[in-house]
Specification:
198 residues, alpha+beta, Alpha-D-Glucose-1,6-Bisphosphate, Chain A, domain 4, seven-stranded antiparallel beta sheet, 4 helices
C-alpha cells in the first residue's frame, strides 16, 4: 500500500555582527552540512554532494535508517540551496525498493533596518509502499503518524542549525582573522641582512 508523508519547516536566524559579514561565510555552503548533522554521519562525495546517514527512524513497529545523498550549493545571489539526490534504506530490502525521499531546502540572507538574518524553509516528502501488515491500519492513522515523524526529523535539524550555524560562523571568523593576522605579521618581518664574506 503506497502512502505519502509530508512535512515543512521554516527557520529564521538573527545574525549578530562580526568583523567579517556572513555572506562571505555562505560562499562555502559545504560548511553548512556540518551544521545540519553530526560530522561522524557525513561523508563527502564531491564538492557539492554529501552522503548523510540519518538516525534510525521508528514508524509504528518498523525501524529504518535512511542514507541520503544531498547536494548543497550557493546560487549567484548568495542563497544556499539543498536537495536530495537519492536515498537508500540499509538492511531492509523490501522497504528500500519501495521507498522514495525528496528533500528540498533553501537559506537566504535578509537585511532589514541593519538587522541581518538568515531565513529558509525545508520541505520533506516520503513515499513508501508499506509491508502487508500495515494494510489493516487506517490510512489516516498511517499518514498522521508518518507526517508527525517527518516533522520531528525537520525540527531536530532546525534546532541543530539554530545552534551550530552561528557557532561555526564565529569559529570561521576567528580563524580568518587569525590567518590574516599571521599573513600580516609575516609580511612585516624584517628581511635578513645578507652577509658577504669577500
Amino acid at each position: 500500500m503506497a502512502t505519502q508523508f509530508t512535512a515543512s519547516q521554516t527557520v529564521k536566524i538573527n545574525v549578530p555582527p562580526q568583523p567579517i559579514p556572513i555572506q562571505y561565510y555562505l560562499r562555502q555552503p559545504q560548511r553548512l552540512v556540518n551544521a545540519l548533522a553530526d560530522n561522524s554521519r557525513i561523508h563527502q562525495l564531491s564538492d557539492e554532494v554529501f552522503r548523510l546517514k540519518m538516525r534510525p527512524l521508528t514508524f509504528m513497529s518498523l525501524s529504518i535508517q535512511p542514507t541520503v545523498d544531498l547536494k548543497i550549493w550557493a546560487e549567484s545571489n548568495g542563497t544556499i540551496k539543498l536537495r536530495s539526490l537519492s536515498c537508500k534504506i540499509l538492511g531492509f530490502e523490501y522497504i528500500n525498493q519501495r521507498f522514495a525521499l525528496n528533500l528540498q531546502g533553501h537559506l537566504s540572507l535578509h537585511q532589514l533596518n541593519e538587522v541581518t538574518s538568515l531565513q529558509g524553509q525545508a520541505d520533506l516528502k516520503v513515499q513508501v509502499d508499506l509491508p502487508p501488515p500495515f494494510c489493516f491500519t487506517p490510512k489516516a492513522i498511517l499518514e498522521t503518524t508518518g507526517n508527525a515523524l517527518l516533522k520531528s526529523v525537520l525540527l531536530t535539524v532546525k534546532q541543530r542549525l539554530l545552534h551550530q550555524l552561528l557557532a561555526d560562523y564565529r569559529c570561521w571568523v576567528t580563524s580568518q582573522m587569525s590567518e590574516n593576522s599571521l599573513d600580516k605579521d609575516s609580511a612585516e618581518l624584517p628581511m635578513g641582512k645578507s652577509v658577504n664574506n669577500f
